[in-house]
Amino acid sequence: MARLALVLVDCDGGGHGRYDQATKLDVIAPALHAARSAGVKVVYLHNAPGGEGGPRNVHRELHGLREGKERLGPPGWKPLRPSYLPELAPTELEPEFQKAHQNGFRDTALDAYLRSWDVDSLVLVGFSLKSCLYHTAWAAQERNYRVIVLRDATCPPGAKEFPDTLDPSLEEGGWTRHVLLRLLETNVGYTATSRDWLDACRAVHALFPRT
């Protein structure tokens, strides 16, 4: 556990009616508190608040213009502490890294921070499975970290699917989630459930109680 970190990817924000609300409260929050009780380091990643660059930034096209939206806004390079649900808020001792890309290692000090603590294994939770969580997992593996994604601590079954990829016959609710999880398991690392994680943390806490 001393060489392990729980990484929360884009778990900020909140509000009723969001697709990720139940996952944050019912899955990620218990996983976070279990990590703290077992002495696991916790790290937060969050997005720059819009304005990823200028008019020629490709993210503006891919995630804005082609969907009829404009993403240009106040520059996102200014330091920002986003708002969190109380159950997911970082402590003063837990680092937060602001990213401007899907890959949480790109242009951040995340890698240097983890190596300074001799961390070599990461448990990833957060959003979204087909975007920042997925790309951060790949980047971690490329930097020789052992990667475990908690597959129920991200987009719920059927969420973030295209209409033509929805498939209620699949456990994952659709082909996008199905394929991404298989790619992670095949080429990046491992997946587990939040129940697996809670059981592991409780076992460690029972053996090595923390005051």
Automatic annotation (TrEMBL):
It comes from the Bacteria. GO terms for molecular function: hydrolase activity. The keyword Transferase does not apply. CDD domains: cysteine_hydrolases. Pfam families: Isochorismatase (PF00857). SUPFAM superfamilies: Isochorismatase-like hydrolases. Keywords: Hydrolase. InterPro entries: Isochorismatase-like_dom, Isochorismatase-like_hydrls, Isochorismatase-like_sf. Residues 19-155 form the Isochorismatase-like domain. The keyword Hydrolase applies. PANTHER family: PEROXYUREIDOACRYLATE/UREIDOACRYLATE AMIDOHYDROLASE-RELATED. This is Nicotinamidase-related amidase. It comes from Deinococcus yavapaiensis KR-236. The lineage of its organism: Bacteria, Thermotogati, Deinococcota, Deinococci, Deinococcales.
